[in-house]
Write a structure and sequence with these properties.
Blueprint (H helix, E strand, L loop, with lengths): L1 E4 L4 H14 L3 E5 L19 E5 L5 H11 L3 E4 L6 H6 L2 H23 L3 H6 L1 E7 L24 H20 L3 E6 L1 E3 L8 H10 L4 E4 L5 E6 H14 L5 E4 L4 E3 H15 L11 E4 L14 H7 L7 H14 L1 H7 L2 H12 L3
Parallel strand pairs: 1-2, 1-4, 2-3, 4-5, 5-6, 6-10, 7-9, 8-12
Antiparallel strand pairs: 9-11
Helix pairs in contact: 1-8, 2-4, 4-6, 7-9, 9-11
The structure holds nicotinamide-adenine-dinucleotide (NAD) and 2'deoxy-thymidine-5'-diphospho-alpha-D-glucose (DAU).
Length: 353
C-alpha cells in the first residue's frame, strides 16, 4: 500500500487512477478537499477497496500518524499543495501553511514512522515529494533549460513556498537519513485540471463565448507535459530513483502562451465550431501577472538516462485528447465552477484592464 496526499486534485487524481490501473496496489489518499480537490475526479474508484479516501489536512499530525500506523504504507507520495500562482499573489498565507508547514508535518510523521521500521521495510521505504520547475526562477531567451544543479531562485509566493518545502525534504535526508526523492516538473495539462489554470480556463471560456485573457504580451514560455506522462515519471522515480536525488521532469515542449491559446482555438474550431466565427476573436490582452516569470524549460536528460523515462505524448496528441476530454465532460466543468469559483474570477480578472 502507498500513502498519497492531495489525490483529489488534478495531478494527484490522475496519479491515483493510473496507479491502481497499472499496479493494483492499494492507495490511502489524504486530501482536505479545498476548492481544488474533487471526489468526482475519483468516481471511477467508487466501491473499489484498493482506494481508501480520507478527508483531512496534511498539517494535522495526529491524522497523518494514525493513517501511517493503521495502513503501514511502503511509500508516501506527496502532491497536496496550494498550486495556483495567481492565488498565491492575492493570498500567500495558505501557501505557507499547506506547502511549508504541511510538508514539515509530513516529514516529521514519516521520520517517526520510518524510524520504527526494521529490515526490508525500513530499507524499502520512500518519501517522494512532488515539486515544480518554478523553484528555479525565470530563464532568458537563450539560457539552457533548468538542470537539477541550477540554483533555486523562486519569484512568486507559490514558488517560494515550494522551494522552502524542497529544502525541508533535502534537509530531512541529509540530517536524519530519511529516504526521500524529489521531482521538479514543468506545466501539466490534461483531464481534471481546475479551470483556473491557462489551458482549461481557455477551453471553458471559449465554449462560453467569454474573453480568453492573455497576460502581458502572451510571449511567456512554459514547457508543457501531458499529465499521464508526469504520472509515469513519478512511478519510475518511486521504483528506481536514487534516495536523496532530485529529478527534473519535462515535456521537451517549450511554447509561448499565445501559441497554446491559438492551438486550442483551432482545435475547438474543428471539433465544436462557435456560432459567431473563429474562437481566436475572443483573445483579449489583460494586465500582466505581477512578477510573471518569462520562461521555464526543463532539461529532462537525467531521468531519461538513469530511469529510462521519456514523455509518450507530443503536444499535438496531448492537447487534442485534452480538448476532447473537456468537450465530453462539460458537466464536470459546470460542477467545479461553483459560487466560490465565480468569486475568484471577479477577484483575479476584475481589476485587469
Ligand atoms: P491542485 O491544486 O489541482 O490539487 C491540490 C490538491 O491538494 C487538492 O486536491 C487539494 O484539496 C489538496 N490540498 C490542498 N491543501 C491541502 C491540505 N492542507 N491538506 C490536504 N490536502 C490539501 O494541484 P495540482 O496541479 O494537482 O498539483 C499537485 C502537486 O504537483 C503540487 O504539489 C504542485 O506544486 C505540483 N506541480 C504541479 C504542476 C502543474 O502544472 N499543475 C506542475 C509541477 C508540479
Ligand atoms: O511550471 C509548473 C507550474 O505550472 C506548477 O508548479 C503550478 O502549480 C501550475 O499552476 C503552473 O504554473 P503557471 O503559473 O505556469 O500556470 P498557469 O496555468 O497559471 O499559467 C500558465 C501561463 O499562462 C503563465 O505564463 C500565465 C499565463 N496565463 C494564465 C492565466 C490563468 C494567462 O496568460 N492568462 C490566464 O488567465
Amino acid at each position: 500500500m502507498i500513502f498519497v496526499t492531495g489525490g483529489g486534485g488534478f495531478i494527484g487524481a490522475n496519479f491515483v487512477l493510473d496507479w491502481i490501473a497499472e499496479t493494483s496496489e492499494p492507495v490511502v489518499n489524504l486530501d482536505k478537499l479545498t476548492y481544488a480537490g474533487n471526489l468526482e475526479n475519483l468516481a471511477a474508484l467508487d466501491g473499489d477497496a484498493r482506494h481508501i479516501f480520507v478527508r483531512g489536512d496534511i498539517c494535522d499530525r495526529s491524522t497523518v500518524d494514525r493513517l501511517l500506523q493503521t495502513h503501514r504504507p511502503r511509500a508516501m507520495v506527496h502532491f497536496a499543495a496550494e498550486s495556483h500562482v495567481d492565488r498565491s499573489i492575492h493570498g500567500p498565507g495558505e501557501f505557507m501553511r499547506t506547502n511549508v508547514e504541511g510538508t514539515f508535518t509530513l516529514l516529521e510523521a514519516a521520520r517517526a514512522y520510518w524510524s520504527g521500521l526494521t529490515g526490508a521495510e525500513r530499507d524499502g521505504f520512500r518519501f517522494l515529494h512532488v515539486s515544480t520547475d518554478e523553484v528555479y526562477g525565470s530563464l532568458g531567451p537563450s539560457d539552457p533549460p533548468f538542470a537539477e544543479t541550477n540554483p533555486y531562485e523562486p519569484n512568486s509566493p507559490y514558488s517560494a513556498s515550494k522551494a522552502a518545502s524542497d529544502h525541508l525534504v533535502r534537509a530531512w535526508h541529509h540530517t536524519y537519513g530519511l529516504p526521500v526523492l524529489t521531482t521538479n516538473c514543468s506545466n501539466n495539462y490534461g483531464p481534471y485540471q481546475f479551470p483556473e489554470k491557462l489551458i482549461p480556463l481557455v477551453i471553458a471560456n471559449a465554449l462560453a463565448g467569454k474573453p480568453l485573457p492573455i497576460y502581458g504580451d502572451g510571449m511567456n514560455v512554459r514547457d508543457w507535459l501531458y499529465v499521464a506522462d508526469h504520472c509515469a515519471a513519478i512511478r519510475a522515480v518511486l521504483a528506481r530513483g536514487r534516495c536523496g536525488e532530485t529529478y527534473n521532469i519535462g515535456g521537451w515542449n517549450e511554447m509561448p502562451n499565445l501559441t497554446i491559446v491559438r492551438t486550442i482555438c483551432a482545435l475547438l474550431d474543428e471539433l465544436q465550431p462557435g456560432a459567431n466565427g473563429p474562437y481566436e476573436q475572443l483573445i483579449t490582452y489583460v494586465t500582466d501577472r505581477p512578477g510573471h516569470d518569462r520562461r521555464y524549460a526543463i532539461d529532462a536528460r537525467k531521468i531519461e538516462s538513469e530511469l529510462g523515462w521519456r514523455p509518450a505524448e507530443t503536444f499535438e496528441t496531448g492537447i487534442r485528447k485534452t480538448v476532447r476530454w473537456y468537450l465530453d465532460h462539460q458537466d464536470w466543468v459546470t460542477h467545479v465552477q461553483s459560487g466560490a469559483y465565480r468569486d475568484w474570477v471577479n477577484k483575479n480578472y476584475g481589476g485587469r484592464e
